[in-house]
Queue: 2 jobs
Job 1
Amino acid sequence: MRKAIAFVVCMALGVLLAAQVHAAAPLELTFWGGWTGPDGDVMRAMVDQYNARHPDVQVTLTTLQWTPLFDKFLTSMRAGEGPDLMAMHPQDTAQFIEGGLLEPLTTFGSDVEVKAGDYDKNAWGYSSYKGTQYALPLDFHMHGLYYNVDLFKQAGLDPANPPTTGNALIDAARRLTIDAAGRHPGDPGFDAKNVKQYGLAFPNNHHALYIWFALLYQQGGGFSISGTQVNFDDGQGIAAWKWVEDLIFTHQVVPVGESNPAQDFLTGRTAMLIDGPWQMPAMQKQQGLNWATAPFPSVFGRPAVWGSGHILTIPKQRDRAKQVATLALAQWVVRNSDFWATSGNIPVFRLAAETDRFRRLKGRAAFVSMLPYEVILPNIVKSAQVFSAAAPSPIVQAAQAATLRNEDPATIVRTLRQRIDSVLAAP
Amino acid sequence: MANLVRSVAAPAPRTRARDQAAARYLFLVPYLIVFLLFRFGPIAGGWLISLTRWNLIGSPRWIGVANYRALWHDSLFWVSVKNTLAFTAMAGPMLILGGLALALLVDQPLRGRYLARVLIFAPYAVMSAVVGVLWNWLYDTNFGIINYYLSLLALPSVPWLINEHVALVAIVLTTVWWTVGYNMVIFLAGLQEIPTELHEAAIVDGATFWQRFRSITLPLLTPTTYAVVILTLINTGQVFDQIYVMTAGGPGTATLTLVQYMYYQAFQTYNLGYGAAVAYATFAVLLAVTLVVHRLFRREAAA
């Protein structure tokens, strides 16, 4: 009998203990993002900090390259196993929203504490779709011009006055391009097959198309998609590709088919680089590299630069408590995005962009100054098909026809238009 | 169970034979279940998906053979067929003849042959992603060690992975380095099954190495060669990993192969139905090539 009583008491204690443990078990949240470089480490550090300060919540960050991440997102959502917080870009949302995968922020009512007014004015608009807010903007990233201060001095250029126009860029790049005998492009006997140092470099993948995209806006035009048609001006498109091709094949200041432009800049083989702010952590780490940044040059008069950004979305799911906790997490990340800025990305949350911690970061000012001129890709349902960064996609085909093959700009423009239109027309 | 008991009790020859047949199938069941579930199911499912339009977000819609009709007019598809055949035509012979040559070499009673076997086979054990990253460094136009050695020999540097005429060749060389050891091992096993008496007798009769190779080794190796040729053709026809890591199909479409294109359609642009159609077209191409080779071997065997 006594044994029986002891058993019952033990059981009761056990149940009580279990209930106690259950109450203390933190809410588990999953957070997915395509940050596979130094940015992933920064976000992981932020998540660790969040977990340490919020014992009731346990966030797990998963990072994969964007394309496989979106595959995983689509298939997991079908299986009801999606993430609680999902990062993406403004131009990615249409496909997921039309597929009914994302929760509009309006459903959270007063739980949404960061508002339009807290942000850079473009950023908030970019993360809405058809008038409904679907995401919290986190950062902006756009093309900028990196330059090697030491090589500038060696070439007799003033590092305090980096090129701001297309012609100034070509002129500086020519003086910074040196063959084995110390000659520059345009000098008699310049040996293009034996160049020791190139003036300028930029990626020859989809980013080359982004440069072209910005140059359309610099000419007062634009790039949009309506229904089954892509809209841009052929003349401006041809002029833009011609300028890009001339840099490589006429002025010979950009190497043909460079496999890793950022790496070549880090090691001083190229003196200038057009790329995004995500390269800054690597620049800071590179010993002996004296680098600086400048705004993306205005080639055709008006300032305009390709850009995008990271936004935080909350996927649809049954567990409302999790969604609310996820919103709190997302708002915390946004409010502390001055720390996220160490990954190179430019925070769009005003208070974060105004902290000393952010302002002290090297090289960011040039990117911040371009915020008003940032132009982003249209957010369309078929963005994966039209704007894929994979080799067969229409935009990469066009970029490589220009940067690797020096194809006739009129042909590139015509083919690009045909390819995009046929993707759009496909059911 | 009752059947088995009864068959023991009353061993009528006919029922016993039938029971034995049933038992045989019973033993096959575990394998068949796994095969049907994880092999045949997806294969048949893939065929059904190839007859739909499905963008992964929505639901599939039946469209009959429209995907295949679109494929016929798709220039990127034909580019990928051409690249796949070119890759197979280059890598295939190098892998088969190279594997055979290496097997013959390490089959000789030379010192260090065991070490050589391990060293030649070792790359095959390396993960494809590692192979891709490694060779990206080796092939780098500006800093790569291959171009460095070429420059020491006063040869011009080769833009390995960024020139549209060279990229596929570069991938072929990587693939040969990576997988030739596998063919070598199969050939080696085949070589060691050839009775040594035949060679000894031939040597006594004064046959040279080449005579022995042509009249003894090669004919007796035919079953092995057949297996190696078919496996190599199928593997090269399905090339994917190293291209995905090294060039992702570029520059331009220079290394866009069938499986690469399938991946692009299905998982990079979410045209699941169209991607499945590319997969079945790939199957058709490989089947055609395999049948031709099969014929050739049959004729050889008959001759």
Job 2
Amino acid sequence: MTHPLFASFSGAIEFIFTPQESNVTGGKKVGGFDKSLELVLRHLEVTLLALALAVIIALPIGLYLGHRGKGELLAVGIGNAGRAIPELAVIALVATLIGVGLKTITPALAILGIAPIIVNAYVGVRQVDPAAVDAARGMGMSELKIIRKVELPLAMPTVMGGVRGAAIVIIATATIAPLAGVETLGDFIINKNVYGENGLLAGAILVALLALTIEGLLALLQRSLTSDGLKLKTG
Amino acid sequence: MSSPMLLATAGHVGEGFFRERNLENLPCQARESELFCWHWATQNIGRYGTPTVQHLEIVVLSVLIGFVVAFALALFAHRSRWLQPPLLAATGVLYTIPSIAFFFLLLPVTGLGRDTAIIVLAAYTLQIIYRNTLLGLANVPASVKDAARGMGFTRRQILWRIELPLAVPEIIAGLRVAVVSTIAIATLVVFISAGGLGTEMYGANLTFPTSIIIATTIVVLMALGFDLVLLTAQRLVTPWRRAAAR
């Protein structure tokens, strides 16, 4: 006699490791470790592609706006608008208007990550001590070098905060990517008729673990990218 | 151009999962490739009433519950500093779990529907409200607190009559972020049959841009409206800020 709650979760964990019977596949077993691992890797692939794309697009814009000290309204506006955009609408619109598949969904996910990165890069650079920038300029550094060697390192904790925010949104939204023909861990959740209750819960557990793991790794990356001097200052 | 493909995918993946749509109301986009069907929109605008109200209810309840919990946590952490790192970590973990995963993790406990939606959305608002409240309290100048103490204020009086009023701008800034992001995330509660505007963005039988665009517009306007109301409220309850700015 086990508690039903315990039964649900142990069923889900069993699903992750060993293939289970399904009602609709005609005797073919579903789930299991190989399938779970495959979907974890797919989810990771889409997430990293989209996150890289978002960083490549948003980081230069945020750093440039912050360096020039202009466009505060633009940066803050992008940040606010970005929060208000429903993820489901972005995926559904891109899928219906442009098409389904990795090639259209990766940029769609990247769009969701752009806003937090721009805002944090902007804010981070604006918070850099102007005296440090003046000193660098006095030493004859070019503007580009000032951004790369002075402002970016000093703004790194805030910049990485933006990247982590973007990662959270992208991992979460990649969960509904199967609606647009991209296989991710969301498959277990959305194709409930194939994978059953156990698959549903297994998908949820795996997505949550993946998100926490990536978030933890990015936090470690943030620590290693932050200069020792800054760590001393903040304790 | 590729909507038939998505229709096929949607029919396959969404079975019984999403609210069924009315097939007799086929929009122009099912026949022609138009971006937005004004005709369909004017005739069907009424269908957005109920989902909008559901959406509002879910958002307001979630943020209220989130605010009460986060505010209480912040007050505890303000008094007992050792609580700050573990509470920040705990609210951070809740914030990191993707919403859809969170919904289905709670499924065996609270089932489908609005309760699960509200618990998850409230959990998401904790971190930002908690962090901003604590920040607001920490930003109160020590000299002001000293002055109050000198005037014979008790600790409780200092908290409620000095520190909290001065922390209002940060607290409301946190609330604004919480409300706006909750309004956007609440579209996802369609996955646990909790209604809301997400029902008009994704359906089993029909997915078409006009409805997605209308529903998204309502969501964005709702976010903008709440943001303006909170901003105005902040101005009204902190008149000294305006005086100082002049």
